[in-house]
Sequence to fold (279 residues):
Amino acid sequence: MSESIGITDEVLEKINRHSVGTLTADMVYCFSVLLCDNEVDRDYERFSAEALGKLAELFVGRTGIFDHDCKSSGQTARIYETEVKTYPDRKTSDGKEYAALMGYAYMVRTEQNKSLIAEIEGGIKKEVSVGCSVKKRICSICGSDGSRGGCAHVKGRTYGGRLCFVTLEEPTDAYEWSFVAVPAQRAAGVTKVYGEREDSDAAEALKSLEKLFCEELTADIIRLRGFVDGEVPDHSELDIYGMIELKRRLEKQLRDEAASGSAGVVKSSSDAELRAFRV
Fold:
């Protein structure tokens, strides 16, 4: 995820566009972050190359936090520059030229963040997610836009030998980027918040969507409990990430039971993760 960056006068000029006072080279720590790419991720979603280009514009100046917790006390770094890198010799799983959105971030050196800097350099704080909004999500099978009712195709299934996934297009806003433990995108990690955001308060928008997503996750978990064998952990005390993990474990258990013949019925989960908060 990260690499040390030489702090040149040009870099300092870009950093000081976002600072109130004038920062010098010895006052800042800089590193690069692979924010997201155009590969099909674990949620069977991908950004288009055009979307990456728009996100590159939107993420300049965005703050870095932890686990998408929008409290100001969690702010730790800020992106001062972005670029989309393309790799002609590398193809995505759906045959596209691989492209990745890189963010170049800085933080002010303090006594409090010495351990964080050490963890970044040591590769402990590595995986990241981004919080953003997109206008369109296009089905790879039929081209329907999920934001306008969508279609009956299910992400992750194969139709006529073609994998169904969603392409995210026309980003409308970028909220933040976060250090996380388990990203959805294999190269970095993406948190997607769907629908055009009309509220200027990103935190309130995220809270509202998180509540809705939790309700949908609860319904999925309750339904899955009826199909798997054995005792299922109580989900009532779990946070949103714990609920996502429990749902995935139940789905895997159901698939394993079906493969072994111990389950008579296999029922796929609903498309609740159209509002996925974690990559």
Observations:
- The first helix runs from residue 9 to 16.
